[in-house]
Amino acid sequence: MGWEALGQWGEDAVRIERLTGGVANDVWSVRVHGQIAVARLGSRSDADLTWEAELLQYLDREGMTVPVPLPTTDGRLFVDGLVVMKYMEGGPPETESDWRRVAETLRELHRLTQGWPQRPGWRSSSDLLHTETGTRINLAAMPPEGVIRCRAAWARLIGRQTCVVHGNPNSPGNVRITADRVTLIDWDESHVDVPDLDLVLPDNAADLDDGAHDIAAQASAAWEAAVCWQDEYAVKRLAEVRAV
């Protein structure tokens, strides 16, 4: 159905402007019931989108500020891959203090989602020690020597407690900050994994000690190399993963 599905949010629902960011989706600002919102059109399965919608609704109920999905006129939270979400005010983090607030918000996410079920079709970093594919990851497409280095980095996380990770919080474009709140947006890569993957932030805002930061940084670089392979950014990230 594509963007024609936007009519399910009301006869007056209309696209306004394409938004930057997001490789896998087409993202626009929209007007729904006279209010500005954000719409994302992609190819994720219904099970995948249900997982994301239920997560955001839960976090909203628990007091986190998140872009909750807005229902269609008949109560659905997505239609044919299209999701319409609440527009979140704010700007990107700019100072060390801003990034420390981001770290606090991430730790609240991790606390609230211990024991959360895995996103359908996804694999955690520890799963990828024994399997090659999961959603956007295909280790078979990477250089074998690179896969060995990535798996060595992820193996250092074995035994850690898992929870929902945002997946890409160190990108300033995925955070909205105001004087009184921090909002994480773009939950398209969120899944269940080890929280360390979320905590490699500018200026070491999560205040990890040297050993913990090295483990987290190596595992995060390996993850981003695998999930983005084979673009220029992924090649750069893989080069940061040391042989162990």
Automatic annotation (TrEMBL):
Taxonomy, superkingdom: Bacteria
InterPro entries associated with the record: Aminoglycoside_PTrfase, Kinase-like_dom_sf
Stored Gene3D superfamilies: Phosphorylase Kinase, domain 1
Pfam family, one: APH
Boundaries of every Aminoglycoside phosphotransferase domain copy: 16-200
Protein name: Aminoglycoside phosphotransferase domain-containing protein
